[in-house]
Amino acid sequence: MIRLEKLSLVFNLGTPDENTALENINLSVKAQDYITIIGSNGAGKTSLFNAISGTYAPHSGHIYLREKPEAAERDITREPEFRRARYIGRIFQNPLLGTAGRMTLADNMVICKQKGYRGLKISLNRKLREQFRGQLAELGMGLENRLSDNVELFSGGQRQALTLLMTVMSRPSLLLLDEHTAALDPWNAERVMELTMRFTKEYKLTVMMITHNMSQALEMGNRLLMMDGGEIILDLDAGEKAKLTTAGLVERFRSIRNKELAHDEMLLQ
What is the pLDDT of residue 258? Predict the structure, then answer.
């Protein structure tokens, strides 16, 4: 679905503050891959998502996308972020970023259904309300009864679950999950993760997920990437992942980089 070829991302090029966020990344993501991504702070995980989603243009290299398995691959390296948002969905750690808080739940759902604000031509009739209620009921949070409420009244867990539902409704070619449960309490984090796995299977999504939970990275998905210093240093398939423990993964990092994995949050999971 997406292919990165010799991709590098450099900030403040040619200045004393020059920083290489990504260095010569080569990566192919297949349709219906579920890839977990781990690494210490500053390893390049979010920079990778920023490059894929178009937030920052790479210094060198190319990004190719195949929107559907039967479609031709095309170069999107210089395509702006707002255009990529039509086929690349991204959910951030902050649950407030994925919805319009001062609009009603119904209006948020309408905008999602028509993929943007432009025109706002869809009429919120009884049939559409019932459709929205059915979709919202799947979240198990009672939001199907709150279509007239402004979204800013909802909890963080409710807003993140709603963001997930709305993103899935847009049928993205690729879904980027940027630690999307990290800011939630344990109950909501577990609920949102359950919904993530259910929607992934139901809609046959292609997913890349950043996590600091090494156990979760080993248990979920069919592939695991470990990053360090802006590079992908480990790329494990489902079979290789199944044979590893958290301690084994830490040892793999140590043997590859000849240093300790300096991230307490990851090691405590």
Answer: 72
